Amino acid sequence: MHPLLKSCFGLLILGVYWPMNHGKQVIDTHQLDNDWPTYGGNNAGNRYSPLSQINLQNVKNLQPVWTYETGDNKDPNQRGMDIQCQPIVVNGVLYGTSPRMKLFAVEAATGKQLWQFDPFSDPDKRPRFHPLRGVMYWEDRERADARDKRILYTVGSSLYAINALTGKPVESFGKNGEIDLHEGLGDKETLGHDVANLSIRVTTPGVIYKDLLITGSAVNEGGDAPPGYIRAFDVRTGKLAWVFHTIPLPGEYGYETWAKDSYRKLGGANCWAGMVLDEKRGVVYAGTGSPSVDFYGGARPGQNLFANCVIALDAKTGKRIWHFQTVHHDLWDRDIPCPPNLIRVKHKGKMVDAVAQATKDGYVFVFDRDTGKPLFPVEEVRVPTSPALPGEKPWPTQPVPTKPAPFSMQELSEPNITSRTPESRAYVVDRYRNSLKGNKYLPPSQEGSLIFFVGGGAEWGGTAADPDGIFYVNGNNMLWWLKMRENQQANNTVAMTQGSRLFNTNCSVCHGLEGKGSGNATANSAQAYPDLTNVGKRLTKEQIATILETGRGRMPSFGHLSKDDREAIINFLTNLEAKPASSTVVDIHSSVVTAPVTKGADFPYMPPYLNNGNTQFRDQDNYPAIQPPWGTLNAINLNTGEYLWKVPLGEYPELAKKGMTNTGTENHGGPIVTAGGLLFIAATYDEKLRAFDRKTGKIVWEYKLPAGGFATPITYMVDGKQYVAIACGGTRYGLKSGGSYVAFALP
Q1: Which percentage of the chain shows pLDDT scores above 70?
Q2: Bigger pLDDT: 142 or 199?
Q3: Is the confidence at residue 3, as pLDDT, over 60?
């Protein structure tokens, strides 16, 4: 039976009436299915389900019905990443990934394992861990009886095609089921350097249009970042089909928005957060991140297209249809952090096919899907261009939508500072009064700034939308401390050993200039990035080597570094190698240098100024430095641009016991909404999965998960029974790790 007919038949059995016209905004016909067949639920990325068996009246009875243990993260010496995967369900089978990058298939009704694929079962393949947020499904629809059904997912720089029925690699795809994602990024003749050994991975799955797999990538954000081109591969053979240059080559549209030959020395401008597809139009919509290097753009004067853009591409050819840049000449790492969302809204009395994009700095841009014209006016607002670092040319204006209002805090003022205790307020006020603050577009400086949006705002968990044009987004209000300083290595002002150079190149972006981590650890709340100054006393050299090579928890693999380079870092960390001539640790943001740097060479680019690492600013007890809410859940009517409701999301259990409730917490993972009137989301520090009334924002059910659910849930139906499932990977915020998936249903 055709999937659409099957879906309609199932809905008739359930007594569900789906109004295709009559003023309701139809989202996507794939949504009529009882499955959850793609990342985001459907090609449009709505994260909406028409299922209503679980609803406002009975959700209080929801209970766990099965748990699937992946087997990972049980041995503290064999941990992988947290689980950020939103699984998919096709024909009653759930496909997902484990903390150690294994792909699995289980019965969606029982959690019984059908098969598991381990990309590192070959002893010659060492693990390479990184965040992995989903997988893709494709089947051969040219033959009704075909058994060619594939799951496609990425591990490191490898894209795998796995038989969905057996869990075996599809030998006709690439080389024995695997292709190298360095393909299509350019060669030495074009770029002036080789890309084969540069770090690239895919953290969020792409989309499949007919027989094309279209994907972005995650790359480093420092001086050795490869270009973040969007590419399409033949889903049958793995052959490269087309490439869209997000950093234009000479003669291409947008080349003039960079310095001459920027494409030879800079990278990034990559779609790491995912994309969506309008299958009827044959158009793919993607959002891109910032160009390298973060926080200093002296080598790239101009607007820098197509970094920080929402882009519409012809899915068949990769040709640009339209674009809109949300940040010009990004100096603040304000990537587009989640996929766009294809919705229908009523605008000026007419129904309009639209695309909505949430941003790291709390904006929601809404565009006409065909033209890219904003549905609500966007103003080019003048912003500060000084004080700027020498060589920097900040762009004088930035786009600001007039509607909707921002869903996250925009600027810091003294009344916004925490008053949790007199001591915490005094601690934060002291830093506040000795830092730059104010306009969120203040250029990075050597004086140091307190800013929002190094992290979201919106995060990678994505947004949801229902057929009424209501848009749901969770957001963070977290403060960051950004301080720039001269790159002594680039300017040859300090001698550095190999180990210290590599540490600064690869590790200080997260662990800080002196390896002391970020935040302030307490018994109740571990800091975001651990202190490494005494790591040699806590771990053996062999244990450190394993973590560097494979990754663990939030830390990705650095297996792309040579063994000698990893050993040099270990020697530096364990104080077995002499300190550099200067005691100052020089930070090079997320750059990976695997060969001696030649002065004057285009690549890797060595910026003259560097940041102090990803340093979140909290009080001395490691709680957020501002007044709550620290995390929110928002419902916005995109027909009008007005808020339907805004509520805190999550709380700290230890503060709640003291009477400080409903604070919200930092949150990672997104929402889904259903025809049953519900919104489901986990994402928070308190490790709970919650159901909200989608019309009011009231919590109507919650459940403490076995480990934090820092992923986006799904819902689906098998044999007439509706389920809600989520990955429980933990690890984030210093919480316990986990390796399971849990499904819920009504008794």
Answers
A1: 82
A2: 199
A3: no
Please tell me the distance from the alpha carbon of residue 154 to that of residue 35, in angstroms, as a whole number. Answer: 22
Check residue 195 and give its pLDDT. 94
Identify the burial level of 497 via C-beta atoms within 10 angstroms of its C-beta, where 0-12 means exposed, 13-18 middle and 19 or more buried: middle
Locate 16 and state its tokens.
């569900």
Q: Which helix (H) or strand (E) holds 454?
A: none
Q: Which fold has domain 409-452+479-623?
A: Cytochrome Bc1 Complex; Chain D, domain 2 (1.10.760)
pLDDT digits (tens, 9 = 90+) for 506-522: 665 556 555 655 544 33
Q: What is the mean pLDDT of residues 203-216?
A: 98
Helix (H) or strand (E) holding 208: strand 207-209
User: Closest by alpha carbon to 324, among 343, 296, 295, 303?
Assistant: 303
Q: Amino acid identity, residue 342?
A: L
Phi, psi of 321 (to 5 degrees): -100, -50
Q: Which of 446-450, 530-534, 573-577, 710-714 has the lowest mean pLDDT?
A: 573-577
Residues 90 and 429: their CA atoms lie apart, in Å, by 53
Q: For the ranges 13-22, 197-206, 458-467, which has the lowest average pLDDT?
A: 13-22
List, as one string, the DSSP characters of 339-407.
--EEEEEEETTEEEEEEEEE-TTS-EEEEETTT--BSS-EEEEE----S--TT----SEEEEESSSPPS
User: How many angstroms separate the CA atoms of 62 and 721, rounded?
Assistant: 12
pLDDT of residue 741: 98
CA 186 to centroid of chain Cα atoms: 25
CA-nearest of 158, 172, 91 to 127 is 158
Strands lying side by side in the sheet with 136-139 = 136-139, 149-155, 158-163, 178-180
Q: What is the spatial distance between Cα 86 and Cα 427, in angstroms, rounded to a whole number?
A: 39
Share of the chain above pLDDT 90, in %: 73
Q: What share of the chain is helix, strand, coil (3-state, %, to 5)?
A: 10, 30, 60
Give the mean model confidence (pLDDT) for residues 298-311. 98
Rg of the chain over all Cα atoms, to the nearest angstrom:
24
Any bridge partners for residue 379, and if so which?
A: 400
By CB neighbour count within 10 A (0-12 exposed, 13-18 middle, 19+ buried), where does 532 fall?
buried
Which of 171, 106, 182, 16 minimizes the C-alpha distance to 725? Answer: 106
User: Which pLDDT score, from 0 to 100, does residue 124 have?
Assistant: 81
Q: Is the pLDDT of residue 465 over 80?
A: yes
**Cα 290 to Cα 304: distance, rounded to the nearest angstrom:** 9
Amino acid at position 555, single letter: M
Q: How far apart are CA 725 and CA 571, in angstroms?
A: 44
Contact 711, 133 (CB under 8 A): yes
Least confident range from 141-150, 170-179, 491-500, 697-706: namely 491-500
The rounded distance, in Å, linking the Cα atoms of 40 and 87 is 9
Count of CB atoms within 10 A of residue 542's CB?
8
Locate the domains of the chain by residue range. 1-113+630-747, 409-452+479-623
Structure tokens at 618: 């909290």
Tell whether the model's pLDDT for residue 203 goes beyond 60.
Answer: yes
Q: Which helix (H) or strand (E) holds 335?
A: none
